[in-house]
Amino acid sequence: MEPIPSTSKSTGPFTGPSTSRSTSQSKSQSTSQSTSQSTSEPRKRYKMMFMPMEGTGHVLTMIGLAYRFLKRHHDITFVVSKSFAKYVAASPFKIHYIINPAFDEYEDPQERWSKTMARNAVHFHKTPIEQAWLQGVFHDDFVNTVIDVNDQLEKIIREVKPDLMFADYYVAVPAIVLANIPWICVVSANPLSIYQLIDGPPFYSGYSITDSNCNWNDFKRRFRVALSGPCHKLHTYAAERGLKLPPNRLWVASPYHNIYIYPLALDYCEIPGFPLRRWSRIDHCIRPFSADPDPLGLDLTALKPQSPKIYFTLGTMGSADIVLMDIILKILKDTPYQYIVSKGPNGDKINLPPNAIGSGYVNQLKILPLVDLVIFHGGNNTLIECLYFGKKMLLLPLFGDQFDNAARIVDRRLGLALRPYQVKPDDLRRAIVTLLDDDALHNQLTTISNNLKKSNSFEKAIEEIESNMHIFKNQSEILALTTH
Q1: Backbone φ and ψ of 289, nearest 5°
Q2: Distance of CA 347 to the CA centre of its chain
């Protein structure tokens, strides 16, 4: 399936044709909430701690991961920023909150990210390589957050004394790396960040696996310069606490074990050196439906049963750009389809066309099974959820790994990608028609969906971790002797 080209002069690396085919497939405030967990014991029950960075996708992925280990009767502690309390307050985990002094702890994360979008919206019009410096700004925020919450995490770790920790942070956290407790690095974004350890396209570049290495090297140089400031800041902070990080690196993998979440149907199996040692791939981390009591978020009775239904979302940050949302919605107005729209944090300022219904909040997991096509920003969670439910996809990436996911979907011929700010109305409408009419793609996505629903990759990863806990403990004792 060929992508619909943009008419912009700079169409970006993800819009070209591809020949790849799909495979089958923080001052500490710490409060603890505890609800009953199952008393049925496995062979060995461990205390496990889950620590996601501030970001809705990261928090939701770690919730899904924690639930799977809870089902194995382990003792689960979840450590999360207070501003994300609503996501975990009703969970059966023991909760410890950290406070980031840079933010209002009661501010909705979506409101915060919408402000970030408003400050930087002009830059999201640019190509990935032109956005490289913006990642320096974002990673400086990530480093500042780690500096602000590190001591809080260190205190919680000392109090809980977990047997194993799971961390999903874009930059190294000294409190975790230096705890002398086994830990697992979780990558819930596009996995190109880990393939930098071998020979993959640069992450955040939107380059295809088939693109020239010359382009890769130029992007890597610009990205390294953009991250030099945050890198120096983190290295200085870490060194003061006894942690020496690898040169020019913000992030480190765990010496124990690591997990990334990405379906086999999209994974970069063609990269030499795949799969990576000490890494487990999990096909998906879909949160249990029984753990999702939220309603749909809107009334669907106005929809006509016989008309194709399309879900439209640009994620928290993308939907905060009211101008962009208005441009896309005006194009969608002139199509014979019905739309369900996630309006985001500025939903009260977004006017929907007659053929659309929407809300500031939409329960995505309950909406996706009802639609025929998803138009979205390319975020990792939504991408995997679309594949899980076998939905056709049209990606409008804005920044970061969204570019990489768009390139991968095109590479695997599983959907189309267009530049949201440059797209012409006819191109967008043509892409929708092409996708809706593609029966072969429907069959291919149905097969992938069935494979994901039957996948035992999660169980295999859990069993591998459980069976190696004694090795992790011995390894931590050896590391403690060599670092003190």
Answers
A1: -65, -30
A2: 23
Dihedral sign computed on CA atoms, order 59, 256, 384, 325:
positive
Residue range(s) in the chain whose domain bears CATH number 3.40.50.2000: 47-286+456-483, 291-453
- Cα gap 49→30, rounded to integer Å: 14
What homologous superfamily is domain 47-286+456-483 in, according to CATH? Glycogen Phosphorylase B; (3.40.50.2000)
Model confidence over 268-313: pLDDT tens digits? Answer: 998 887 778 889 999 998 876 554 555 666 788 888 888 899 999 9
DSSP 120: H
What are the CB-based long-range contacts (under 8 Å, 24+) for 352-355? 353/329
pLDDT tens by residue, 244-266: 999 999 999 999 999 999 999 99
Half-sphere exposure of 22 (CA within 13 A, CB side): 23
What's the rounded Cα separation, in Å, for the pair 379 and 385?
Answer: 10
Q: How far, in whole angstroms, is CA 255 from its chain's centroid? A: 23
**Within 13 A of 76's CA, how many CA atoms are on the CB side?**
27
Cα-to-chain-centroid distance, residue 64? 12
CA 310 to chain CA mean position, Å: 22
Angstrom distance (rounded) from CA 164 to CA 269: 29
DSSP 136: H
In whole angstroms, what is the distance from residue 293 CA to residue 90 CA?
A: 9
pLDDT for the residue numbered 289: 57
344: DSSP letter: G
Q: How many CB atoms lie within 10 A of CB 443?
A: 11
User: For domain 291-453, which architecture applies?
Assistant: 3-Layer(aba) Sandwich (3.40)
Rounded Cα gap, residues 72 and 76, in angstroms: 10
Distance CA 303, CA 240 (A): 59
In angstroms, the CA 255 to CA 259 distance is 12
